[in-house]
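Follow-up to my earlier ticket, as requested here are the two runs.
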Amino acid sequence: MTLYVSDLDGTLLDDSGKLRPRTSDMLNRFTENGTLFSFCTARGITTAAEVTKGLKLRTPVSVMNGVFIYDPVTGEYPVKNIFTPEQAELIKSAITENSETPMVFALIDGKERVSYIENSPNLKGHLSRRKGDSRRRPLSGYERMFDGEIFYAAFINPENKSELDKVFCAENGFMSAFYTDTYDNNDQWYEIFPLTAGKANSVLKIKELTGADELVVFGDNANDIPMFAAADRCYAVENAIPALKEIADGVIGSNENYGVPEFIEKEIFPVFDYIPPENTGIDDVRFGLSVQKALERERTTIGTLNEKTIHHTLKCYYCDETDHEAKIGGFYADAAGENGIFEVQSANFTYLAKKLPQMLSVSHVTVIYPYERTVHNYAVNEQTGEIMSVTNHTNSSYSKLFLELYRLKAFITNPNLTVIVSFLELDKKLFYKDDRRIRRRGMKKEKLPKKLLCEIRLDRAEDYRVFLPDGLPERFTRTQLQKLMRTTDASIMLSVLEFAGTVRRVGKEGRSIVYSVCGQE
């Protein structure tokens, strides 16, 4: 079994240091299917837990560059690497003699604490990005900086790195990492930890603990180089430093474009044979015949028209040559054949989401969604059959569609899933008891499809661009999109487009998030 291990900052997290919902949803789906996924980071367990709280991890993780291995299932630490008292003394003398002002990490009274000299200019930028860290222990001087069991020290832009290297060497039982800050290129980090720690040792230990027979790692920075050397396969994200790309087995998508989860998805899910239909337009004759077949079925089995007429029509139109009501594992599909599984679903995609993991594991799945574009509303007297009024309505809102797609958000990037949005013209009859048109519960109603106006096939991220309005700026906010979309809820729409990889966040304007269309920046 393969164990996938990712660095966090600059690799799994986006440029703002956040784990995007789509990333956590995809990874959670993978782990639920038995995939082994972990992370290896220079962050401590507290801050790592904060930024990955959406992940439902089932494997141990490596923090503080391998100083600790933490098991999120048991809450225990299978591995702890602490400096010896002799090494702690070397740390103390090297720092004080060179007048350095690092952050010193130690276990004090059983709790992880970070000691540092308050108002140190070299720490100002980093500390401002980590406000609210409960581990902080600001001090006025060196006197209590070296309390507790020290296991890590981090220097930002050290003044005397060459002198520090003489002390923090392998001969003295130290390992060090020197690299550029992921979020501020002006800062150089110099970190020291026990020689028994390190990213390489920790990922190999996690491989041993999980019983995996292959280790695949992902990274972006210089401190990931040892981890790359230890792995069976290693991949650099597009935004990685050149030195890491040179030694990688391949370069994948960037941290902003979901490089890690999309790579894993392609590896663990086989791509099944699927032949997209030729783009020959709408077949009006075949659609008319499909309506007739649906009507015959409805009238012979139920005796009247109901909501299922649209469902049966689309099933006949899109998959008439396949086996209807095919059993797939513990579920029934609307149809299945040589070109995959077909599901017609007008609502309640939450139920569909329960079926998809099993269906996508065995076949390509096509989900057909009827979008009621043009509706002719008939008010009918139930007693006489008289049509009392007719009103026409053109639906221009995609809110309901995007709400249903949101319920499938964890699957919409799966290469084995196609969503077809079928734009329909239909007659809708509502039967009133008499001419007073009093609405009551259980009123009889009929929906009869008249014409298939057009269809939108959603296979790839770029397919979703069709929903974006004309006149949208290259960089835009939710408010700007909402003004152009009018009746469609822009918030839910953006959530889906971001999950699909169609748009991405590129910054902020005041308190508003700024988006751009992927591939058009």
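Run two:
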Amino acid sequence: MSACASPDLSNPSARKRGRPPLPVVLHPDPQWPDDDDPEDFHEALAGQMKRHGDTAHSLHRAVKSQDGLTDRKTLSEWRRGMKSPQTPASLKVIDLIEFRYRLEPGRLRGKLKPHRATKGQAPTGVGTAEARRLAWHLPDDFRQRSAKEQAEILAWVRKRILTGGTAYSLYHSKAARHRFAFRFDEASVPTREGRQTGSANLAAPPQLQAEMRSLIQFKSATLTDLGFQRSGVWGPETAAQRGEHLALLFGALAASSDGEVKGAGAVPEDLSLALLVCPPVWDWYIQWREQRRGFFTGWESEMLLLAAALTRVEFGWLRQCPWLAERLRPIPGVLTQADIETVQADWDVACERMNRHALSRAREVQRVARVHRDPFEPLLPILEAASPVGEYLKIAEEVLRYMPDARRHPRAAAETVRGFLMLRLGLHLGVRQKNLRQMLVCPKGKTPRRERELEQLKRGELRWSDRDGGWEVFIPCAAFKNAGSAYFSKKPFRLVLPDLGGLYAMIDAYLERHRALLLANANDPGTFFIKTVKAKSRDAAYNQTTFYEAWRLMIQRYGIRNPWTGRGAIEGLLPHGPHSVRDVLATHVLKVTGSYEQASYAIQDTPKTVADHYGRFLPQDKAALAAKVLNEVWNVAA
């Protein structure tokens, strides 16, 4: 062959130019003892590669020989901390590297702090939205498991994490698929923050809209209109809630009797608030709700009490609006023409009859009412612990355990710090979701807002106290739902947060770096907690729904112990929102002191409210407290 001739590439025996590749060594010998074990995955991988004399090229050849699917650039980026393994194939490569260096299984994989769900885990046939929710909670080897085990894992995750697993959550999920409530204009009925009233395609008829506007105006105005009398005023939240409840009632009356809702089939244009003076309408409605649920609840009793209030002598709005009687129309199977004529004959007598009927029916319903949504059910593992607050703190510790590296994953780290602070401040303050969500912030070195300004805003503020040398939460009593409670005595709420468990360091880091990263270039709402601003949503302020979902997401990821992934702090916990922290605080104080009064101090409420709604004080807890006192006698005697 001449010097210029090309090699015969078709001949497999033709020798390739250059040095032949070195054989792949399955287990290279370490060059020094394994004394250093960094916590960081990237540093640990780089250290083991150097210890075994590997480069990205040689390690890539070794992994490829074991059927590992990756490339040399990826390994180099892992070593330098530019990327992290996020797919099942990538995690298999980590297992192969551990095997190559003869490390104990999980040595490198255990150092990964997942800030995102593992990609490519969702089973076939699952929609995109559900696949995104499932991904975080599926084990890394989900695809390699048998079909039976995959089905078992999916069923557990859907029941215990995604839906919540309680009877109420399952009922609500099913009922929400068939919306029937009327939609009122915001000019007629105020809407609760983050919530929509009624169904989008069921606008209330104009006549009913006008009547609702008059009722809300009557109950919400600063001064009563001339010629009217009232007792008590509705705030914006109460007005919105009452509007939602009445929207459900009229939506049920208008819903088709043949559909899923099985309503009364009334003509929407025939509906009027005058129907609230007719006992047959109320009897139909509460029985319709009882058949829909399977039992009566306290909700029906509260609605009947609303009917009693609206027909009350002197102060009831319906009592003072006799002109409504002309708007009554029959509803087949519910209200007859004879019933209407009886009401129209004497409006005052009809209102008095309805008032007595509502009070009587409310007592009957209260006697047989059952609890549909037990607020304690999702928290039972925590409330049954000796130290409920200590048990709940495990969730915050789990958040810290999986804290992403802020240098490599700044936004994920910012979101994790925000979630940690939500949990910690919720436990320290014990306030309602609204007060925590709307809490403003005043950075160090700035002048805090005056109390009068906060009263007008009806919001609290987190500010630095030079006098106490700590972060202080100041909330005027006007910002609380129970502002008239004896707990406040018209005085503001003030609490200096304790610098425990790195709380101050987290607050400082959040305000100095993380909060600005979450805010991006959006307008600052001034609240301490803000959403992650993205291209599709430029509003950084949380509302009632989004704040609840943010809290619930933290519980799903870090609170619920997942036996398939090993993540999560508490076994048996179910998803819940921020309001549940009040149950935890009240129950903890009850277990320690046995005092409903002291428990009420923890959640800014009254002992009766704690006993009725928040504290889970079981007989065994009471017996344990008594035994603790009595056993001291035996200790002295011994």
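The only thing I checked on run two: The radius of gyration is 32 Å. Let me know what else you need.
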